[in-house]
Amino acid sequence: MLVSLLVPQTIELKVDMVALHEKRLRKCLSKVKGIERVEVEASIEKVVITGYANRNKVVKALRRVGLRAEFWSAHNEILSTYATGSVMFNTYSFF
C-alpha cells in the first residue's frame, strides 16, 4: 500500500502594494483553498505563504483582484536589501 504524505510548501511572492493593499491581499488569500499561513513584509513587498495551495493559483488570485504579483527571486532579494538600507556604503568627504 502506497501512502502519500502531503508536506506544506512555502511560496514566496513579490507583491507591489501600499499599506492599504494588505487588507485586500489577506482577504483574497483567505478564499484560496489550502493556505495555512500568510506573512506580509510590506517594507520589502514580500509575501510568504505556507500551505498546500498551488503556486500558480495563488498568483492568479492576487492578479484577479488587481495586485501585481510575481514569484520571489534572488534579484528581489538584492533589491530589498538596498531598499531597507541594510547595506553599508563607504562615504568619503572631499571637503
Describe the structure.
The protein has 95 residues and is an alpha+beta fold. The chain contains three helices and four strands. The protein has helices at residues 21-30, 55-64, 74-84, and strands at 9-16, 35-41, 46-51, 68-71. A four-stranded antiparallel sheet has the order 2-3-1-4, covered by helices on one side. The longest helix has 11 residues, at 74-84. The relative contact order is 0.22. The model is unreliable at 87-95 (pLDDT under 50).
Quickly count the helices. 3
Number of strands: 4
Biggest sheet strand line-up: 2-3-1-4
Structural class: alpha+beta
**Uncertain segments of ≥5 residues (pLDDT<50)?**
87-95
Mean pLDDT: 80
- What is the N-to-C succession of helices and strands? EHEEHEH
Strand percentage: 25-35%
Main pleated-sheet profile: 4 strands, antiparallel
Name the overall outline.
Answer: globular
Distance between the termini: 78 Å
Give a quick rundown of the structure.
This protein is an alpha+beta fold. The chain is built from three helices and four strands.
Using brief descriptors, characterize the structure shown:
95 residues, alpha+beta, 4-stranded antiparallel β-sheet, 3 helices, 33% helix, 26% strand, globular, disordered C terminus
Secondary structure topology:
Blueprint: E1 9-16, H1 21-30, E2 35-41, E3 46-51, H2 55-64, E4 68-71, H3 74-84
Antiparallel strand pairs: 1-3, 1-4, 2-3
